[in-house]
Amino acid sequence: MRIVDLSDRFSWEQCKMDVHAGTHVDTPAFLFEDGKKIEDFGLERFMTDAALLDLTLKRPGESIDDEDLEAAEEAAGLALREGGSVILFTGSSSSGVCLSGNGAEYLEFKGVGLVGIDAADIDGTEFPERAAHKVLLGREILVLEGLRNLGSVDASRFRLACFPLKLSGAISPVRAVALLD
Q1: Left, alpha or beta for 56 (phi > 0: left; psi -120 to 50: alpha)?
Q2: Of 42, 106, 109, 173, which residue has the fewest beta carbons closer than 10 angstroms?
Q3: Comparing C-alpha atoms, which of 134, 127, 126, 136 is closest to residue 106?
Q4: What does the alpha-carbon distance between residue 29 and residue 44 come to, in Å, rounded to a whole number?
Q5: What is the per-residue pLDDT across 113-147, written as a single tens digit (0 to 9) for each?
């Protein structure tokens, strides 16, 4: 028998961070007191088929509405899939372009399970009433914000992996990855 002393050498590190910064996922508990938290969702919700919609024609201060989404679907030659993810490529990493309440209702109608965007906040800074968050999270549609490098994704459909940390909270940082064929 061999005995190994596990108390000897180890590294102890601490990480203190704002979970709502960088690429992160919001769950219903972000806005709703009785809403589901990260721990209430199975891992399958964070690895889905995804559709990438090009909305780079939108300018800072403009919002994405149902007509914009429908036109982007048509231009890409695809239809959003129920339970899948939709990724909104605005080309803006700031809060300049956002999703309108009407656009969120359109995505809810399409039955998506997750909406991602490359902006820091899906509602932008001009809309403190958080219409998009309310519509989406109210229907348990996850919100993925702060995505990067969407211009490098050369497919309109791909597998999305965006696993959160195992937290008992409303928000978690994620490492979002597009899995291309």
Answers
A1: alpha
A2: 42
A3: 136
A4: 19
A5: 999 999 999 998 766 688 999 999 999 999 999 99
Cα 65 from Cα 132, distance rounded (Å) = 10
pTM of the entire predicted model? 0.90
Residue written as tokens 């601490």? 14
Q: How far apart are CA 13 and CA 106, in angstroms?
A: 44
Instruction: Indicate the residue type of 35.
Output: G
Q: Each residue of 65-100: b (16+ CB within 10 Å) or e?
A: bbebbeebbeeeeeebbeebbbbbbbbbeebbbbbb
Residue spans of the domains in the chain: they are 26-179
Look at the domain 26-179 and name its fold. Glucose Oxidase; domain 1 (3.50.30)
Neighbour tally for 147: CB within 10 Å: 23
